[in-house]
Amino acid sequence: MNTPRLATPKINPVIETIFQKLADQFENERRLREQLGHLELEREGLESALQMAHEHPDSTREVWSWLSSEFKKMNEQLAAMDAPLLRCVSYETFVAFLRAEITNTQA
C-alpha cells in the first residue's frame, strides 16, 4: 500500500511577506539590543535583584519593584533616543527564578 503524498501547504504570498518582514524586524532589534549591551544589562540587573531577594526573602516584592522601576527609568531615556527598550521579567517570572535558584542552592 502506497502512502499518500501530502501536499505542501500553500501560504498566501502577502502573509508570507508580512511574516518575513516581522522576522527581519525582530532579528534587527535583537542585533541592536546585543550591540547596545541590553542583554547583559538585563541579565546583570536580574541576577543582582535575585541575589538581594535571596538574602532578604521577606522583601521579594520590593526588590522586584525596585528592579522594574530602574528599568522603567532607563527605558524612558532609551525611548527618547528611539532605541530598543530593556525588558524586565514579570513578578511571577521573578519569583519562579528565585525559587529555582533557592532549589539549586539547596541541592
Percent of residues in beta strands? Answer: under 5%
Overall structural class, as computed from helix and strand content, comes to mainly alpha
Biggest beta sheet attributes: none
* Unreliable sequence segments: none
In round numbers, the mean pLDDT is 88
Compact summary:
The chain has 107 residues and is mainly α. The chain is 74% helix and 0% strand. Helix 2 runs antiparallel to helix 3.
Task: Name the descriptors.
mainly alpha; 107 residues
Strand and helix layout:
Layout: H1 13-36, H2 38-55, H3 60-80, H4 91-106
Describe this protein's structure.
The protein is mainly α and 107 residues long. Helix content is 74%, strand content 0%. It is flat, with a radius of gyration of 21 Å. The N and C termini lie far apart (55 Å).
